[in-house]
Amino acid sequence: MDNLKRSNKPIDRHQKIKNHPIKRQGRVSRLWHRYKRLRLWHKIVVTLAALVIFVILLFYASTLVDTLMPATNNPEFGVSFSTEYAQELGLNWKNCLLAIMNDLHIKRYRFMTYWEQVEPQPGVYNYSDVDWQMNQAVAHNYKVSLAIGLRQPRWPECHQPQWAAALQTSNPNLWQQDLLTYITNTVDRYKNNPALQSWQLENESQNTWFGDCIDHDRSRIIEEFNLIKKLDPNHPVYMSLSDETGIPIGQPTPDAYGFSIYRIVWNDKSPFHFYITYPTPLWFTRLRALYIRVFKHRPSFIHELQMEPWGPKSTEDLTTQQQYQSMSPAQMKTNLLFARKTGLTPIYMWGGEWWYYRLTIKHDPQPWNIIKQELIKFPN
C-alpha cells in the first residue's frame, strides 16, 4: 500500500515547464506555435516586419560582399571554342579560330578534347584537330585550359563515341576503364605542351537537369581527378559549377572553381515555355565565391559567360530577331558589365563561334565589334 501513496515531494514548477510538450519542441517550433495563435492582422504585421528585416540583412550582406570582393577594374578575358559547334553553324572552324586569335587577340582559350572525336573506334586515336588548335596557341603565345572527361561543353554535354555509349549500359566497369584510358592518353599527350595552362575536368559534372547524360557518379569524378593529378602534378585541375548546382560541398576539391553565368534563356523545363531572366543576383555570385574562398580555400573565376543566344531552336534556325531576343548587342554589354561587377577574373566568354557566324554568314558585325571594343578597353 505504501507504494500507492502519493509522494509528498513538492512539484518543481520549472521542471514542469521544461517537460511541457511545446517546450520540448525547440525554439523554432515554439515561435511557430505562437505565430499561429496570433490574430490575422497581427500575423500580417509580424510577416511584414520579418520581410523588412530580411531585406535589410540582404542589403548589408551585399554591401559586405562588395567590400570584400570589389568589381575588377582590369579583367582578363578568355573564350571557349568548339570545333563541333563551329561546323554546326556552317563555319570553317579553323578560319573561325584564327579570326578570334588574330583579330580579337583573345589570349586565353578553353579547347575541347571530345572523346567521340579523339577515339572514334576503340583504341584508335585521332588528335589531329586538338593538335592543330594547340599548335596555334603555341604559335601565338596564348594559354589553354583543356577540357577533358566524359562531360564537356556544348550539347549533348556528354560527348562519347557510339561504341562507348553502348558499352556504358552493357558493361559499366569496362566502360569506365576505357574512359580512364582516354583520359590517360590525352593527359600524356598534352601535359608538356607549352600552351597548356590547366585542365578542366567534367564540365558542370553535377548538373543533372541539362544535357544528355546518364552518369553523374561522384566516385568516378574523384577517380578521374586523382588520375589527372597523378599523371600531371605540374598543371592545376579546374572544375565548373552551373547556376543551379553552385555550392561545392563534397569531393573532389579542384584547384579553382569556374562559374557559369547566364542571363536570358529559353525555358522548356516547365509545362509553359518562355524566355526567363535568371533570378540569380550579383550578390549571390559574389557570396558564393566568398564561401569557396573561406571554406574551400580556392579561387573562383567565370568559365562560361553567356555571350550568344539561347532560344527555342538551334541558333542557326533562329531569325536575327529571335537571336537578339536573348542576346542583343545591348544585352551583350549588360552581361559584360555584370561579369566585371562580380569581381571574378579571368572571364571566359561563351559564343565566339556565334560572333564569327554573325560577322561572316549574316554580315552583321555588331557582336564581333562589341567584343573587340571590350577587349580594347581592357588589354592584358
Describe the structure.
The protein is 48% helix and 13% strand. The chain has 380 residues and is α/β, with parallel strands linked by helices. It folds into two domains: 13-57, no CATH class; 75-377, TIM Barrel (Alpha-Beta Barrel). The protein has an eight-stranded parallel β-barrel with strand order 1-2-3-4-5-6-9-10, surrounded by five helices. Strands 7-8 form a two-stranded antiparallel ribbon. The radius of gyration is 27 Å and the shape is globular. The model is unreliable at 1-7 and 13-25 (pLDDT under 50).
CATH level-four homologous superfamily name of the largest domain: Glycosidases
Q: How far from one another are the termini? A: 95 Å
- The name CATH uses for the topology of the largest domain is TIM Barrel
String of helices and strands: HHHHEHHEHHEHHEHEEEEHEHHEHH
Alpha-beta content class: alpha/beta
Large-scale geometry? globular
Tell me the number of strands.
10
Number of helices: 16
Which architecture of the largest domain would the CATH scheme give at its second level?
Alpha-Beta Barrel
Low-confidence stretches: 1-7, 13-25
Proportion of residues in β-strands: 5-15%
Helicity range of the residues? 40-55%
CATH class designation of the largest domain: Alpha Beta
